[in-house]
Amino acid sequence: MSTEPSADPQLSAALERLASYETVLVALDFDGCVAELVSEADAARPVPANAAAIEQLAQARGVTLAYVSGRPLETLRRLASPPEGTLLIGSHGAERYLGPDSPGLVLSAQEEIARTAIIEALEQVATTAEGAWVEHKPAGAALHVRRVEDPEVAQKVLEEARTALAMVDGAHVKEGKAVVESVVVLSTKGEALTDLRSHVRPGAVLFAGDDVTDEHGFAVLEGDDVGIKVGSGSTAAGHRIGAPADLADVLETLRRFRS
Ligand SMILES: O=P(O)(O)OC[C@H]1O[C@H](O[C@H]2O[C@H](CO)[C@@H](O)[C@H](O)[C@H]2O)[C@H](O)[C@@H](O)[C@@H]1O
């Protein structure tokens, strides 16, 4: 079944309404939304058609682009290669680039201690299964199991990680796809999206994402905002597309409605 907006009259109508506003904020999750999920996290890149559609949309009248991602800000910038002027939210909201004056993330002494404890705990768990590895991040760390061959072993490793993290003071757990993350700065994509809305003051917002952390973003949408869940799974989003490869058509449709 095609999930192109042209084949989904409700999504197409929602995009047309969105496009009628003077100003629009288009906020995109990265992994599993703009980029396909891959086993080498550092190899993730925008689907080429998505990259092209994003570049085009960045030129459109009254459109502000933003990435809202769990990735560290610097990694997001390197992997996504966003058009100039794109606003960037990284580390699930803990890191923000809203312009050259944006302050960088500074952890308190207590947060630094918690981050070190998170990394140590996850590195220890990662030694128990081949393929498990730890991504060190500015506000915490993520234990990845996508490269663990046996799904039962992978689940067991994730469970051990949750148990280990429960012992760390100041560690907040975030669930993801083949990953358990922990951050020392508690913030959600919903809060980040609300702050972006206050900063940009758009007429309406489009937000697309694929993961459980993106549900916080869908939850703060309102009015003629458009929420798009990428892939399967329960969601609060009003619309759904099948895969990252379907996103380009959504963005291109929105651009056409604005021209
Ligand atoms: O909010 P996002 O932009 O979706 O980032 C969420 C996490 O994405 C990355 O992990 C996920 O993508 C990897 C590459 O495709 C995949 O190997 C992994 O299994 C996924 O969980 C990233 O590594 C994390 O730091 C992000 O928080």
From TrEMBL:
Signal peptide: none annotated. Keywords: Hydrolase, Magnesium, Metal-binding. It catalyses: alpha,alpha-trehalose 6-phosphate + H2O = alpha,alpha-trehalose + phosphate. One of its GO terms (molecular function) is trehalose-phosphatase activity. The keyword Iron does not apply. It comes from the Bacteria. NCBIfam families: T6PP. Belongs to the trehalose phosphatase family. This is Trehalose 6-phosphate phosphatase. It comes from Nesterenkonia lacusekhoensis. The lineage of its organism: Bacteria, Bacillati, Actinomycetota, Actinomycetes, Micrococcales.
